[in-house]
Here is the input.
Amino acid sequence: MTSVARSRAPQARPFCLDIERDGDVVARERLLDAAMGPERFRKTSERLRAGRKPALAMVARDETGRLIGTVRLWHVAAGGRAALLLGPLAVDAARRCDGVGGALMRAAIAAATQAGHGAILLVGDAPYYTRFGFARAPRVVHMPGPVELDRFLALELRAGALDGAEGRLVATGERAGRRRATRKAAHARAASA
Ligand SMILES: CC(C)(COP(=O)(O)OP(=O)(O)OC[C@H]1O[C@@H](n2cnc3c(N)ncnc32)[C@H](O)[C@@H]1OP(=O)(O)O)[C@@H](O)C(=O)NCCC(=O)NCCS
Here is the structure.
């Protein structure tokens, strides 16, 4: 799927949204390293992502096809209630405040809704994510490690989808297996390049 996204200002450079492809792995990992550094692997959210295949992965590309943004969502559950965990979301520093992050968020939410998912959870800055409808996650749902409670956010795509959700989130996505090994190798190559 490729779609042309809106740029927010007339002078803003164009970009398009696309489903992430296998060939995007090196550029994606480089972008995430630049945006978040190695600390990203120590985030609590990583415990729900490591070794799993994402439920949905989208990228933004510039007019030359270069990857300039990434967002991924992961299958999780709490107390038997299924949801998606969103993250990481990152945009190339040279292309921020151009609407790329917002376009990726709206496309990810729309794709998750269309696929029938009931809710999205994430850990992030509330002042950014409230514009997409996110609010404080139910207090009875917990991440599997330390997070600032004000940053643990939820968006119900279907009213009541998180009713009855409680306890610690667990990863429920398909295991990545060999593909993860390939990704780790690609990341090692990118880091040493
Ligand atoms: C957060 C991020 C993805 C936003 O991407 P973007 O393409 O610049 O986003 P948009 O252009 O759609 O929106 C820009 C707006 O969001 C605001 N914004 C960006 N990051 C913000 C934050 N952390 N908190 C509050 N507002 C934020 C900008 O100030 C700008 O505000 P404006 O609309 O009033 O001008 C990007 O800044 C980024 O990659 N940051 C580093 C990685 C990161 O922090 N990821 C999110 C983890 S919480």
